[in-house]
Amino acid sequence: MNAPLTPPRRWDTQSQNRAARLGRAAAFARGRHVAAADARALLEAVLEPGDRVCLEGNNQKQADFLAKTLVTVDPARVHDLHMVQSVLALPEHIDVFERGIATKLDFSFSGPQGARLAKLVSAGRIDIGAIHTYLELFGRYFTDLTPRVSLIAAQAADAAGNLYTGPNTEDTPVIVEATAFKRGIVIAQVNEVVDTLPRIDIPADWVDFVIPAPTPAYVEPLFTRDPAQISEVQVLMAMMAIQGIYAEYGVQRLNHGIGFDTAAIELLLPTYGESLGLKGKICRHWALNPHPALIPAIEAGWVESVHSFGGELGMEAYTAARPDVFFTGPDGSMRSNRALCQAAGHYACDLFIGSTLQIDLAGNSSTATLGRIAGFGGAPNMGADARGRRHASPAWLKAGEQARAGSSRMPRGQKLVVQMVETFREHMAPAFVEQLDAWELAEQAGMPLPPVMIYGEDVTHILTEEGIANLLLCRTAGEREQAIRGVAGYTAVGLGRDRRAVENLRDRGVIRRPEDLGIDKRLASRDLLAAKSMKDLVRASGGLYDPPKRFRNW
Question: I need a labelling partner for 468 at 20 to 30 A (CA). Which of 14, 53, 306, 416 fits?
Fold first, then answer.
């Protein structure tokens, strides 16, 4: 008998599904344009149960109108969505799970929604696939987490549907490319529709629908820090960072995390850094959002280039006026790109300096604590020694030499990864702990591994108000533990130090106090800051910086 014929396999099922979705949505669109009043109907027509959906939630720019609209869809029609997005920033990012519209989540950072996220996870209402780094999540968009539908935000569209993303491009290119080239659906909310765009950032044939939102997309000035809030302890720590790490290694290419600690460093470069004769020797090339605190250093000629993950509200005119420093388009506005800047921070920078909520005795750190799943964002990429790096620089080579001194291991360089924390955080919570909360959190949430932000093996220095612990010079796990205890101050971890061992480490230069660096603590004054207020930053910019209203205190 002849075997029954197997029908030929179809190789265009995704295209067929796309056509069906577009057919259902056609009633609500005029070309690519859809009225805001029809946004809910459009989503209900396009989305199918179980879809993988990317809702553009970035560090700063939010597709907030589409987020609000998604929450209103009928859960009987749209349910069990798998959300894949960088950041959970808005209440609606959690509301979709409470309403049963979405059930699974892969993300990078949850910020202000961390507490709500933790409650829903512990209640079994959200299934977390993984807490990713940004680059890791972007990579999975092109492998096994490709969005079927993406909801994005742009500054403007033209009649054809071309998009202009402006300074806050952020994640948009990587989201759109992954979706559009796998036959998914891309829906963009825009602030306005114009006849002619300043430049085309996303071509129209990558976009299916454009919706003019009733209000401009929300953008958070995440990297703005008021110099008036910088303390003298933070000034002291910044002095130690500049003299004990930046100058020590000749750091030219770097990334700063978010916070007042690193803002203090930026504001000390034109003053304290200048007094040390370091201009032109450190801090020339940055992977960094356009931090307002960097304005005095830029104006003083310290900074040669800045490539940015995203924009910063109020810095638009300043970045446009400094095209030699920032990456700008022919229209004059800055172009940001989170994926490319993350790659630069991972492979092209010699130093990352950031902060954390908890550090254990091995130097592992995490921002995932009991009752709060904050995620990690880009810190694990910024704060990791890139094993694929092959180009050399003095800072990279020196760190590698210190780590391998007296060893027969193959010589290689190493990235400088600095955790800069005060020994006690707000509400007197100790930054140093015997064991990270991440262990208990993993058990509660059924995670396969504790959610560690930066692994101790990647951390090269820990800097507190007590001094600097250079972990590159430690030769045993015991030395490493005592070096960490030695800068942990009056926390329980610090009080548990072996005083003789710590003094021995100090004699060897593994631990260095301010006085060991020649720093007089009495000079650690706010008078050293190149700008002491937001108004000072405006003056330093020549009036180009326009701070958001909440930072205007004059």
Answer: 306
Per-residue confidence of the chain (554 residues) as pLDDT tens digits? 576 788 899 999 999 999 999 999 999 999 999 999 999 999 999 999 999 999 999 989 999 999 999 999 999 999 999 999 999 999 999 999 999 999 999 999 998 899 999 899 888 899 999 999 999 999 999 999 999 999 999 999 999 999 999 999 999 999 999 999 999 999 999 999 999 999 999 999 999 999 999 999 999 998 999 999 999 999 999 999 999 999 999 999 999 998 999 999 999 999 999 999 999 999 999 999 999 999 999 999 999 999 999 999 999 999 999 999 999 999 999 999 999 999 999 999 999 999 999 999 999 999 888 888 888 889 999 999 999 999 999 999 999 999 999 888 899 999 999 999 999 988 889 999 999 999 998 888 788 999 999 999 999 999 999 999 999 999 999 999 999 999 999 999 999 999 999 999 999 999 999 999 999 999 999 999 999 999 999 999 999 999 999 999 87
Q: Which residues make beta-bridge pairs with 33?
A: 30, 210
- Establish how many alpha carbons lie within 13 A of residue 420's alpha carbon, considering only the half-sphere containing its beta carbon: 29
- Find the farthest-apart pair of alpha carbons in the chain and give their distance in angstroms, rounded: 97
The alpha helices in 49-101, defined as continuous H runs, are 64-71, 91-98
Burial of residue 541 (number of CB atoms within 10 Å: 0-12, 13-18, 19+): buried
Bridge-based pairing of strands 365-366 and 358-359 is antiparallel
Confidence (pTM) = 0.95
Closest CA relative to residue 348, chosen from 251, 243, 455, 222: 251
DSSP letters, 438-462, are HHHHHHHHT-SS---SB-GGG--EE
The tally of CA atoms less than 13 A away on the side-chain side of residue 79 is 7
For residue 290, give the nearest of 268, 315, 267, 270 by alpha carbon.
315
Question: Using CA atoms, how far apart are residues 351 and 289, in angstroms rounded to an integer?
Answer: 16
Amino acid letter, 376: F
- CA-nearest of 220, 246, 242, 240 to 309 is 220
Sequence-ordered list of residues with C-beta below 8 angstroms from that of 111, at least 6 positions apart, any chain = 87, 88, 89, 374, 375
Tokens, residue 538: 């405006």
Q: Which of 366, 256, 359 is nearest to 312 (CA)?
A: 256
Report which DSSP code applies to 3. Answer: P
- Where would I find the beta strands (DSSP E) of 323-425? 351-354, 358-359, 365-366, 368-369, 372-373, 416-420
